[in-house]
Amino acid sequence: MRKVFIYFLFISVTINHVFATVLINPATQGGFEAGTSFAANGWTEVNGAQTNKWWSKTPGNPATPFAGTNCAYVSDHATGNTYNYNIGNTSVVHFYRDITIPAGEPYLSFSFYYKGQGESSYDYIRVYNVSTGVTPVAGTQVGSGQIGGDYNLVGSNWTLVSQTFCATPGTTIRLVFSWINDGSVGTQFPGAIDNISLQSSSVAPPCNLGTGVTNVVALPYASGAGTTCGAVNDLTTSNTTVCGSSLYLGGEDRVWIFTPLTSGTVTINLTSSGTYTGLMLYDGCPLLGVCTPGGTAVCCVGNATGSSGDKTISFCAKANHTYYLILDSWPAPNCNPYSNLTISAPAGSCVTNTDCTQGTTVCNSSPFTGNASGYGCTQELNAGNQGCLSLEHQSSWYLFSPATTGNLGLTIAPNSGIDYDFAIWGPYPPGSNSGTICPPAVPPIRCSFASGGATFGQTGSYDTGIGHSVHSVPQFAPPVPAYTDGIGNTLNGWVPGIQATAGQVYILLIDNFTANTTPFNLTWSLSGGGYP
After folding, report:
1. Which residue of 209, 383, 436, 514 has the lowest C-beta tally within 10 Å?
2. If DSSP codes are grouped into helix, strand and coil, which group holds residue 198?
3. Phi, then psi, of 505 in degrees rounded to 5
4. What does the alpha-carbon distance between residue 514 and residue 511 come to, in Å, rounded to a whole number?
């Protein structure tokens, strides 16, 4: 079997439109046929001192490549001569390469073959699309940017994975393959990879959403009574960008498509006697691999999920952007009735700050209120910058700069018992802006991920923040070293305030972990200067 034949056969059978540029050729470097090392094939391996390591050559017993002579595989042998892993030793190892996206070609088609057994949820292959600022480290999982799921449990059967995703033309992405095992239970054999293919195109995949699609002609809009029953489960986690919880892409679904002609706040209300309904709102087609006209991935604008039927989303709409609203549910019940779904016309003015690059600049020390409806276009937290946090849920980003030197504190007060978390990065040089410092590249200097219940139990309040006269110990401290308040029943949600220097710039992220419509109020605590 010749690898070049399989490559052209794969293209002719599986690709439904012409891709202009081959970025990784499965018959050569994507199939590890250019030599018996990762470097010879344009990849970088990161094995470190881990027991189980990646190798790229002809594997030993009983493995055979999918095609050709070589493949990438995991082995615990000193020179990679056997295809086995040490189940009793924890290992996290990687190999990766950087790919520059051609001009005008944001649409990527990605595929590879894998095999291996491992252990469900513990021993598996993962694949990531990350920026070149993320450098894989042996013994450490990559974090955000995962493509697809966990790849294992197929034994010796080579299995094809095909994905589509987007990237910004002219930028460079880093494609990472990882093997992870936990050091306890597992089954031979470990992961193996072959015939990696990546191609780019200027032609967008079609946004085929299946049945149950309504094109809204004008706003305001009211659906009247309806049901998702009979609309078919077209949109699932395998083909749809998750916006909120993946659990709510399990039932039959309906979609409403609308394009506001003006900007402003739009409110969506679902009235339903059903249960476990989910509303998910996207700026752009929600299918995986379909980009916005500018070549960026679809934005998760907002979501509302839960055991009840009624739902509300309020968001800042942009004129002439096309939005896609999905009504879905848990797998049980598989479908739900609704008496009405309404979409208001845009009203007033509003600001979108769900991404760091769109962060709101705080101009004075006045209190303000906020709450996002989603995490924006990009999950900007990763293993290198998240600190005590994990993922964004409903995130609001701000930039502030003290006008004078002094002690700076702030209080984030939910309107009810809601769990708000936060992180602060900096200080950055005077004059820094979101275009130069977003997203953060390092861990935060202040961070709290204490649960609302733990905070209330320790302080009698759901308030959280920095610089509290009683609960922050010490009340104020220099920006470095960092202070963090992670998860735990003994944590109170407060960390020291900042002894700030005039003109320096800070990034503030406030995240509604509860992911509901309850806003927060932020007030500043200032002494000896420190005013934003």
Report:
1. 436
2. strand
3. -110, 140
4. 9
Q: Where are the domains of the chain?
A: 3-201, 213-343, 356-527
> Using CA atoms, how far apart are residues 388 and 16, in angstroms rounded to an integer?
43
Assign domain 213-343 to a CATH class.
mainly beta
Nearest 5°: the CA angle 197, 199, 200 is 160
Gap between the Cα atoms of 77 and 75, Å rounded: 5
pTM of the predicted model as reported, rounded to 2 decimal places: 0.60
CATH number for the segment(s) 3-201: 2.60.120.200
CB contact at 8 A, 452 and 514:
yes
* 356-527 fold: Jelly Rolls (2.60.120)
- C-alpha span between 321 and 306 (Å, rounded): 27
Work out whether strand 21-24 and strand 71-75 pair parallel, antiparallel, or are unpaired. unpaired
Report mean pLDDT in 10-residue bins for the chain, 532 residues: 39 44 98 96 98 90 83 96 96 98 92 97 95 94 86 95 87 97 96 97 88 97 98 92 89 98 94 96 87 67 90 90 96 96 92 83 81 74 89 89 91 87 95 90 94 89 94 94 78 94 94 82 78 58
For the chain, what percentages of helix, strand and coil (3-state, to nearest 5) are there? 5, 40, 55
Domains 3-201 and 356-527 share a fold: yes
